[in-house]
Amino acid sequence: MSTANLTNVENFNYGIEKIFDKAQDFLPINGTDYVELYVGNAKQAAHFYKTAFGFQSLAYCGLETGNREYCSYVLVQDKIRLVLTTPFNSDSEISHHIRLHGDGVKVIALWVDDARSAFAETTKRGAEAVMEPTEFSDENGVVVKSAIKTYGDTIHMFVERKKL
């Protein structure tokens, strides 16, 4: 396409079909599991999201639950889950992130069927590892999480959830 006369340029209609027939989906993603924001005041931010946008409280982690490093509020609205996290220690990595960037997204967690495979496939293609696949389990099920670095200080977390 020549850019000499841009008055005759037409939009290209990108459809949902594959552009390259032999392309493989090496990273099947089911959806977004959650988005975690590092904020200066998680309690106030949770109140704002609940009153302004109609989110509901789902879970809490903090001093009352034995966590002495940070507190997190998990909010939900339909299929959207937000995690709002504030550090207790001014020298923590979370505090440093907030001082550097202000309140903002730190983790975009993607729901996958196989977090180990997602990690292996992305790191094989050059992604920088942040968290090796790690399994967490309790009476409700098993969660496998892994993470890679993306742009800036944001990370993509792969989350695999299995019921027992």
Describe the protein in words.
With 164 residues, the protein is of the alpha+beta class. It has a single domain (30-163), classed as 2,3-Dihydroxybiphenyl 1,2-Dioxygenase, domain 1, CATH 3.10.180.10. Helix content is 19%, strand content 40%. It has 3 helices and 8 strands. The protein has an 8-stranded mixed sheet with strand order 2-3-4-1-5-8-7-6. A hairpin with an 8-residue loop joins strand 2 (56-61) and strand 3. The protein starts with 30 loop residues before the first strand and ends with a strand.
Write a concise keyword list for the protein shown above.
164 residues; alpha+beta; 2,3-Dihydroxybiphenyl 1,2-Dioxygenase, domain 1; eight-stranded mixed β-sheet; 19% helix; globular
What secondary-structure arrangement, pairings included, does this model have?
Elements: E1 31-38, H1 42-53, E2 56-61, E3 70-77, E4 80-87, H2 93-101, E5 104-111, H3 115-124, E6 129-138, E7 141-149, E8 155-163
Parallel strand pairs: 1-4, 5-8
Antiparallel strand pairs: 1-5, 2-3, 3-4, 6-7, 7-8
Strand content: 35-45%
Query: What is the percent of helical residues?
Result: 10-25%
Strand count: 8
- Cα gyration radius (Å): 20 Å
Number of domains: 1
Molecular shape: globular
